[in-house]
UniProtKB/TrEMBL annotation:
It holds the Pfam family DAO. D-dopa binds at residues 374, 407. Residues 1-40 are annotated as: Disordered. The keyword Chloroplast does not apply. This is FAD dependent oxidoreductase. It comes from Roridomyces roridus. The chain crosses the membrane at residues 67-85. SUPFAM superfamilies: FAD-linked reductases, C-terminal domain, Nucleotide-binding domain.
Length: 440
């Protein structure tokens, strides 16, 4: 199914977006060194070339194939495992929990709570501002775009993996090669039934065709795919700095290297105190065309780190459910939001004002409110080898970190996995590690 994703900019956020463009021109607009089309060239992971969505591996595992221990079983850990398995590696995934598709909604992983609408950086939650991380993210997201698009374009895979396409900043997106880009300004609001006077008036808007993922279905599919390709899965909780237990873990699992893909806990396992939760929530309403005209397009207004504007995030799922968001609350660890919590009520009120038809929307009785903790990091996404050593005489660590994705784990997954593989190969070869800012 091919639909549209519209991103609207109202009068208030036009000023903040323009202001952000002036302050952060190095990473919000392509420079002569990195034109927009540059982000779409030579992806390291290409579906059906060096990764396949089918159970059979592209490269058979050999007796001397490297063995990688991946800690974490969210979308980042599983996609990384998938890519390694198709490269012929032996993979063990170690996690304290696994994707749950049962009725106990409270046990879902953060990757299952995500809205999972592909976005060109920065994400709608406004949490990605580091120039180095953003430069990487624009490459990562395009690798993931084409991978998820291949899945969405295959009717059978699309149904199985829960991935379809919807028609979603501007100059970079237009030149990136994504499909369906259309910039018609405020006219889009009228086309999509949006209140043109929302928060002072809709002033601009654009649309494009992007993948949107049913995260419960996709996590179930990813887990089964990785198992079918031969991964071993072990349940365990690791709470210690990995550098201190690296050799013990490698000895126990006969692993050549370790990947830290533990999301929110990635910092605790790497001596990095820049990680914190960014609490989010989504209302789930019935989207069957009965109470209001069925919404077939994703709609959004991004948050901005320099202002106090809140998120508009409206995304249709594949099961007649519409997700309504959102919020981005920094350093909030508790998952204690309810339908009566003021911030949740304001979220619903904003959506009703933005898209008036939603006033009649009925909550999904089985699962009305989803909430989770985005794995935020002040320096944003970290895809990097461990730079520390146990002591001055020790060999370079063989740990590769991949965490801090905030609200962009699904959008960056395949791109990050490709870089992780390169870093693992360097670590196994005994090369000295380099910081992210030196590799860009």
């Amino acid at each position: 199914m091919l639909n549209n994703h519209q991103s609207f900019i109202n009068e208030h956020s036009v000023s903040t977006h323009l202001h952000r463009a002036e302050r952060q021109a190095a990473h919000t607009q392509p420079s002569p060194r990195t034109p927009a089309e540059h982000y779409n060239t030579n992806p390291k992971l290409v579906m059906h070339q060096n990764i396949t969505p089918h159970p059979q591996r592209l490269v058979k595992q050999q007796a001397d194939s490297p063995h990688i221990l991946i800690i974490g079983a969210g979308v980042i850990g599983l996609v990384t495992a998938w890519a390694l398995l198709d490269k012929g590696y032996k993979v063990t995934v170690l996690s304290k929990g696994w994707a749950n598709v049962g009725q106990n909604h409270g046990d879902r992983l953060t990757s299952q709570i995500a809205g999972a609408l592909w976005e060109f950086p920065p994400a709608v939650c406004g949490s990605h501002v580091d120039a180095v991380s953003l430069e990487y993210s624009k490459h990562w997201c395009m690798t993931a775009y084409w991978a998820w698009k291949e899945i969405a374009d295959d009717a059978g895979l699309s149904r199985e993996a829960g991935c379809k396409k919807l028609l979603n900043k501007m100059r970079e997106i237009a030149g990136s090669g994504v499909e369906g880009f259309r910039h018609t300004g405020a006219k889009l609001a009228e086309e999509r039934g949006v209140n043109p006077k929302y928060e002072g008036g809709i002033m601009d808007g654009y649309e494009l065709s992007v993948p949107v993922i049913d995260t419960d279905q996709a996590m179930h599919w990813l887990t089964n795919l990785v198992l079918a390709k031969g991964a071993t899965m072990t349940t365990r909780t690791i709470e210690t700095d990995l550098l201190l237990v690296e050799q013990d873990l490698r000895n126990e699992f006969h692993a050549d290297a370790i990947v830290n893909a533990t999301g929110l806990y990635g910092g605790a396992l790497s001596g990095d105190d820049s990680c914190s939760p960014l609490r989010g929530a989504l209302l789930r309403v019935v989207n069957d065309g009965t109470a209001f005209p069925k919404v077939n397009a994703a709609l959004s207004i991004s948050a901005d780190v320099s202002e106090d504007n809140e998120i508009i995030f409206i995304v249709p799922r594949t099961d007649n459910i519409l997700l309504i968001g959102g919020i981005a609350q920094d350093n909030q660890w508790d998952l204690d939001l309810t339908l009566d919590t003021p911030v949740v009520q304001r979220m619903r009120e904003r959506a009703n004002e933005f898209l008036p038809g939603l006033k009649n929307a009925k909550l999904d009785p089985a699962y009305p409110l989803a909430q989770g903790l985005r794995p935020a990091r002040s320096k944003n996404v970290r895809v990097e080898r461990e730079l520390r050593r146990v002591d001055e005489s020790s060999e370079p660590s063989r740990i590769v970190h991949c965490y801090g994705h905030g609200g962009s784990g699904w959008s960056l997954s395949f791109g990050c996995a490709a870089d992780v593989i390169d870093l693992l190969d360097e670590a196994i070869e005994g090369k000295e590690p380099e910081a992210m800012n030196y590799r860009i």
